[in-house]
């Protein structure tokens, strides 16, 4: 039991409670749009960089942008001219796709720069499916540790996980669905989904407990939550132990 207690105390809950819980929102339906994962990730990347413009009906806006500045913002690795050209073309293609799919508007300036106008605060929170909260702390961990397309894919996968979280209900703030389930939801391979989960838990984006369930001997299940919800995750897992749903916490 002592080992169990130590595992259940692996997160500094007092410290996590004091961390910022600032967030941005995206409509839940964006996750299921039939567009490439890179494009959805780019939308999240731009939204996380944007500011709110009261003079533009509270649209999120990025001003005075260039293709080079956005390539640098995503920290694509600098290489020879051929690689640099490839990154530039990929960035241009993503912006064109976002504009074609009406997720952003691009307003050209006389100086060769452009503004990127994203939806309004209100627009990002409306719709029958509701909206998804993406926390800046988690977004920052992804953005500071990953670059290029891998960053965009991981931003989208984080949003996919968050799309299944319904706050104000502790049970629904804990993620119990399998990587295979999220692979289907994100329209990616099961192997890619497993790699995303592994990266997110190993890099402090997701809090987790690896557990052996009592009902099926040897059946291992992961329980996840956003890192700032580690206290809720710990409480739920302890509850499952008391209810004898969980036999043992392994890590």
Mean pLDDT: 87
Structural class comes to alpha+beta
Helix and strand succession? HHEHEEHHEEEHHHHEEHE
Specify the number of helices: 10
Q: Note the beta-strand portion.
A: 15-25%
Number of strands: 9
Percent in helix: 40-55%
The termini sit apart by 13 Å
Shape: elongated
Spatial ordering of strands, largest sheet? 2-3-5-4
Low-confidence stretches: none
Radius of gyration: 20 Å
Q: Sketch the major β-sheet.
A: 4 strands, antiparallel
Notes on the structure:
- The chain is elongated and about 65 Å long.
- The longest helix is centred in the middle third of the chain and has 20 residues, at 81-100.
- Helix 3 (37-49) packs across helix 7 (148-162) and helix 4 crosses helix 5.
- A hairpin with a 5-residue loop joins strand 2 and strand 3 (59-65).
- The protein is of the alpha+beta class.
- The strands form three sheets. The chain has a four-stranded antiparallel sheet with strand order 2-3-5-4.
- It contains ten helices and nine strands.
- It has helices at 2-7, 13-17, 37-49, 67-73, 81-100, 136-145, 148-162, 179-186, 190-202, 230-242; strands at residues 23-27, 51-53, 59-65, 105-108, 114-120, 131-135, 206-213, 220-226, 246-249.
């Amino acid at each position: 039991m002592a080992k169990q207690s130590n595992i259940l105390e692996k997160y500094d809950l007092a410290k996590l409670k004091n961390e910022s819980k600032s967030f941005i929102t995206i409509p839940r339906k964006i996750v299921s749009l039939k567009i490439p994962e890179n494009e959805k990730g780019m939308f999240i990347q731009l939204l996380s960089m944007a500011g709110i413009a009261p003079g533009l009906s509270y649209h999120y806006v990025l001003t005075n942008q260039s293709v080079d500045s956005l390539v640098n913002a995503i920290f694509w690795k600098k290489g020879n001219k051929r690689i640099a050209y490839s990154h530039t073309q990929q960035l241009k293609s993503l912006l064109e796709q976002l504009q074609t799919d009406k997720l952003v508007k691009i307003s050209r300036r006389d100086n060769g720069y452009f503004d990127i106008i994203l939806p309004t605060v209100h627009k990002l929170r409306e719709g029958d499916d509701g909206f998804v909260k993406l926390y800046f702390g988690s977004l920052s961990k992804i953005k500071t540790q990953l670059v290029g397309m891998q960053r965009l894919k991981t931003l989208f996968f984080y949003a996919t996980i968050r799309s299944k979280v319904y706050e104000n209900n502790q049970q629904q703030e804990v993620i119990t669905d399998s990587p295979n389930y999220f692979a289907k939801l994100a329209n990616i391979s099961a192997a890619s989904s497993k790699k995303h989960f592994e990266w997110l838990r190993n890099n402090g984006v997701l809090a987790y407990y690896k557990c052996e369930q009592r009902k099926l001997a040897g059946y291992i299940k992961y329980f996840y939550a956003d890192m700032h919800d580690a206290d809720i995750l710990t409480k739920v897992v302890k509850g499952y132990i008391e209810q004898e749903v969980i036999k043992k916490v392994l890590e």
